[in-house]
Amino acid sequence: MLIDPDRTMNDYLTFFTIFITICVNCQMENTESKEEIFNRAKSRHTLLDRRLQMLLKKPYLTAEEELEIRVLKKKKLYFKDTMDNLDKLPEVKEKE
Description:
By secondary structure, this protein is mostly helical. The protein has a domain at 34-82. The protein is 69% helix and 0% strand. It has 3 helices and no strands. Helix 1 (9-28) packs parallel to helix 3 and helix 2 (34-56) runs antiparallel to helix 3. The radius of gyration is 16 Å and the shape is elongated.
């Protein structure tokens, strides 16, 4: 991943936040049950955590890796929030 010097870290984080939001909203429209959404969010949260732990064990991080850590933390938080707030969503009825 190449970093464009004209863009700030916040530009990249904003892009990823919007991208993740769109992806999760599309999933929820596909008549998935709360349990399926929870399991998918938990799985992604776990994968992000593994990658984050791998990066944090490194003694030296490049600028790209530091950016990746920030993005991973935000994605991880998003999926955690998804799992925590799932009870507040109405159950999606399956199409017949």
